[in-house]
Specification:
7 strands; 15% helix; flat; 199 residues; alpha+beta; 7-stranded mixed beta sheet; Immunoglobulin-like
Length: 199
């Protein structure tokens, strides 16, 4: 009789434990939380292992992108950079001769010189305005395989028409043949004039 009562009590306790476990499972599904207290089983019954807490790995598609901060705009003072205005100057004419007038311009244009002329001049007439422009005259002896023999540079600043004069001289006699002077404005060739020394 005692054995039967023991079996009945054990069966009731097992049934009660199963109902408790079943109720715990329902609460877990409804609240989606893991119970904090371990479930108890009936005496003599092995305890069911608690479900392991798992965290599903995030797929690359669901991985949140790292927060990026757009680059800050460059600091601006509201003032434009101080860039000098472009030179508004052009070369109007180049005159060659061997004599200058009182204003240091060629008094009489000529294209033929004697071997004993001591100096040859090239006057460059410009129009327009500039705060700082560079004129260059490069002289060469064409019959001597276009051999350059002199180069002179002048800086000019003007608010209107101006004349800049370049000079080459030879303490000895000029070799007979053809010559050339090339005029550049700010490094760019703008004019070329030929002349000749005759015997």
């Amino acid at each position: 009789m005692k054995v039967q009562l023991r079996h009945t009590a054990l069966a009731c306790a097992t049934l009660a434990g199963m109902l408790m476990l079943s109720a715990c499972g329902k609460n877990e599904q409804e609240s989606n939380t893991t119970p904090t207290a371990p479930a108890t089983s009936a005496p003599g019954q092995p305890m069911a292992p608690a479900p392991a807490a798992t965290t599903a790995p995030m797929s690359p598609a669901s991985t949140p992108a790292p927060a990026t901060t757009p680059p800050a705009p460059a600091a601006s003072s509201g003032k434009s950079a101080s860039v000098p205005p472009p030179a508004d100057i052009t070369v109007a004419a180049v005159t060659i001769g061997n004599e200058l007038d009182g204003s240091h311009a060629i008094s009489k244009e000529q294209r033929h010189f004697a071997p004993d002329d001591k100096a040859i001049y090239a006057s460059v007439a410009t129009t327009g305005r500039t705060d700082n422009a560079t004129l260059n005259a490069k002289w060469s002896y064409e019959d001597g395989k276009d051999q350059p023999f002199s180069s002179t540079t002048e800086s000019i600043a003007t608010d209107g028409p101006a004349v800049t004069t370049f000079k080459v001289s030879n303490p000895n006699a000029w070799p007979i043949g053809r010559y050339k002077v090339v005029i550049s404005l700010n490094g760019k060739t703008v004019a070329s004039e030929n002349f000749e020394v005759r015997g």
